[in-house]
Design goal:
Belongs to the DegT/DnrJ/EryC1 family. This protein has 388 residues and is an alpha/beta fold. It has helices spanning 25-46, 53-66, 77-87, 105-112, 157-167, 219-228, 250-260, 263-280, 309-318, 348-356, 368-387; strands at 70-74, 95-98, 116-119, 142-145, 172-174, 182-183, 186-187, 194-198, 212-216, 233-235, 238-239, 295-296, 302-305, 357-360.
């Protein structure tokens, strides 16, 4: 409960202040502009535009960063998931256990290999896969378990890996939002057979365009991934299986190689901002995100829940605070998956999150003043909602 006395005076956007952006990639770029341009110029001068030394250098550096033996760069996080499921042995008629509270690309990859996504709900405290539901969904057609490290927090991997071992089912991690996250001191993406990352520009580690990667500790899997991404060429013009044009471009490898050096500092900035949000919003009638005690959250997104989400977002926008929405329709209720026969109520936690979630601005370059404006403005709006 908040009181009128605890709320700030009305905070209209001041004439000398622009809106608080949801994300500010321009400011981030300005700080490393010279390095980025030099790296891009070197790629252009070298005239190797696809794969090549810049991609190989990034692969080696990112593998070291997460503590994996191998990293294979590809052209998107979606492609990373697709290739990882192929390498896990998933194919037509198979089933993959995953969650409906995620970006739809998680399920796209399952569908791309001809398999069926089998959903389990998420846990409301962490917003990641509810491991208590997994085992009961396993059938003789289950070929993989695909947890999502949502919003920057790892799923509870210990029990999932144990279930996988007990049933002989590989675990493939969707770590698209979890660069540098950890579960019991192990890096997200390194615990299962494969870990799949996205480097979409808005990610904690973002390219200047589309890019992704798969990490693995299995040398045979890594070798197959490298072949599959390049038209399945074991050697030039020899194609042993169906392959794909999923190669990472050299420009993206160059950009990612520069940005990776700053990622840990950016992550610590996000963690500090998340702590300030937790303190500043603690007394408000919001369901705030939490960091599990055995995990390291990297706060790709700071997602709160409120039953009047849409009204709150509109009021924030009107007062100069931009927000995001991740994600308003769970995958099981998307038209593309209508054939699975799910209905509203099948996964109540995911559906509640979809109805009530909204993402507050959080990015490494965010100033205390910007964040204070978010907190103060949201406090006032919630007071208005409560007393309306």
């Amino acid at each position: 409960m908040i009181s009128r006395d605890s709320a700030s005076a009305t905070l209209e956007a001041r004439p000398d202040e622009g809106p608080v952006p949801f994300l500010d990639l321009k400011t981030q770029y300005a700080g490393i502009r010279a390095e980025i341009l030099q790296a891009l110029e070197e790629v252009a001068d070298g005239a190797t535009y696809v794969l090549g030394p810049r991609v190989a250098g990034f692969e080696e550096a990112f593998a070291a960063f997460v503590g994996a033996r191998h990293c294979v760069g590809v052209n998107s996080g979606t492609s990373a998931l697709h290739l990882a499921l192929i390498c896990a042995g998933v194919g037509p008629g198979d089933e993959v256990i995953t969650v409906p509270m995620t970006f739809v690309a998680t399920s796209w990859a399952v569908s791309y290999v001809g398999a069926t996504p089998v959903f389990v709900d998420v846990d409301l405290a962490t917003l990641t896969m509810d491991v208590r539901q997994v085992e009961r969904r396993i059938t003789n057609r289950t070929r993989a378990i695909l947890p999502v490290h949502l919003y920057g927090q790892s799923a509870d991997m210990g029990p999932l890996l144990e279930i996988g071992r007990r049933h002989g089912i590989p675990v493939v991690e969707d770590a698209a939002q979890a660069h540098g996250a950890r579960c019991q001191e192990r890096a997200a993406g390194t615990m299962g057979l494969c870990g799949c990352f996205s480097f979409y520009p808005g990610k904690n580690l973002g390219a200047c365009g589309e890019a992704g990667a798969v990490v693995t500790n299995d040398a045979d899997v890594a070798a197959r991934l490298r072949t599959l991404r390049d038209h399945a060429q074991g050697r030039r013009y020899h194609h042993g299986e169906l392959g794909f044009n999923y190669r990472m471009e050299a420009f993206q490898g160059a950009v990612l190689g520069i940005k990776l050096k700053y990622l840990e500092g950016w992550t610590e900035a996000r963690r500090r901002l998340a702590e300030r949000y937790q303190a500043g919003l603690a007394d408000l009638p919001l369901l705030l995100p939490t960091e599990a005690t055995d995990r390291r959250h990297v706060w790709h997104l700071f997602v709160a829940l409120h039953p009047q989400r849409d009204r709150i977002r509109q009021a924030l926008e009107e007062r100069g605070v931009q927000t995001g929405l991740h994600y308003p329709i769970p995958v099981h209720l998307q038209g593309a998956y209508e054939h699975l026969g799910h209905q509203t109520g099948d996964f109540p936690v995911s559906e509640r999150i979809a109805r009530e979630c909204f993402s507050l601005p959080i990015f490494p370059e965010m100033t205390n003043r910007q964040q204070d404006r978010v907190i103060e403005t949201l406090t006032e709006i919630l007071l208005e909602v409560e007393y309306a």
